[in-house]
Design brief:
The chain is an alpha+beta fold. The protein has a single domain, classed as Sulfite Oxidase, Chain A, domain 2 (Alpha-Beta Complex), CATH 3.90.420.10. The strands form 2 sheets. Strands 1, 4, 5, 8, 9, 10, 12 and 13 form an 8-stranded mixed sheet that branches. A hairpin with a 2-residue loop joins strand 8 and strand 9. The structure holds ligand MTE. The site of ligand MTE has 16 residues, from loops.
Length: about 325
Amino acid sequence: MAHTPYPRPSPDEITPRSVWLSRRTLLAGVTMGVASRLVPRARAETLHARPGPFQAAEKPTPLSDVTHYNNFYEFGLDKGDPAALSASFAARPWTLSVEGLVARPRVWDIDQLIAAMPIEERLYRMRCVEAWSMVIPWDGFPLSSLLAQAEPLGSARYVAFESVVRPAQMPGQRGGLDSLGWPYVEGLRLDEAMHPLTLLAVGLYGETLPNQNGAPVRLVVPWKYGFKGIKSITRIRLVEKQPPTTWNQMNADEYGFFANVNPEVDHPRWSQASERVIGAGGFLGGGRKKTLMFNGYGEQVAGLYGTMDLRRNY
Ligand code: MTE
């Protein structure tokens, strides 16, 4: 039998969108008391995504947690700030430029990009460096599909990403958190960027991305800590040298360039051996589990790192 390194699940293993939606309705009924926490989705549109490969076996995190427990420092430091303070952020019109060491640089209009790309639903585990996790049904397309269109040159080794700078709409960019520095920047090695798991997300739970989750387009790299998932991207640049990244620049001892999920390498201030599963506390007091190497995606990605010392290259 032919060996497929990235097996596609059979259709009956994939949770259909209708099931997520009915779970969501159920959730809304059960949590009437927190109805005000549900997302303002006035502008959300349904995305026509087909089920993609890589469907996590876990149940998706409730939508209200995915959209109300966020890290998006442009809107503030609190987990609730992005939902509370991003309503007037304008995610359209929007351009995303692909430039640098490519044969075909291009500035994309976000909706033309979405129309041109193969939009898929993918249920991914997400492990934040703060030792909590979620399982999120993303809608998006492989970053490799976009990069292939740009035709990277032989000299390109890394991909650099940049978030939007818009202090008038992003209160966190109006001082207060000067040490982080704007724009938020991130980077991947080119082979990591081209890996089929690496997604540019434009939606979640079947609808356009809420502002607090990084509208209109954000990166998702499920075997790395969540901070690699840069939000509200405006610029993607192919470069020769390893690009600077926001958290690494701020505190290199705590946040490395690679940021691969690794239960054996603790953060200097806390253990990475286990994680709190957001939205799974319930009455039984569960909601913690052991963290897996590469967040459980080792079979797919371990080969990217060969004999590299992952303690040194954290
Ligand atoms: N992107 C930008 N532009 N600004 C940020 O502060 N926070 C990162 C990442 N992307 C961040 C960002 C961190 S620390 C995490 S854990 C994830 O976004 C959180 O994504 P979520 O809120 O959609 O779960």
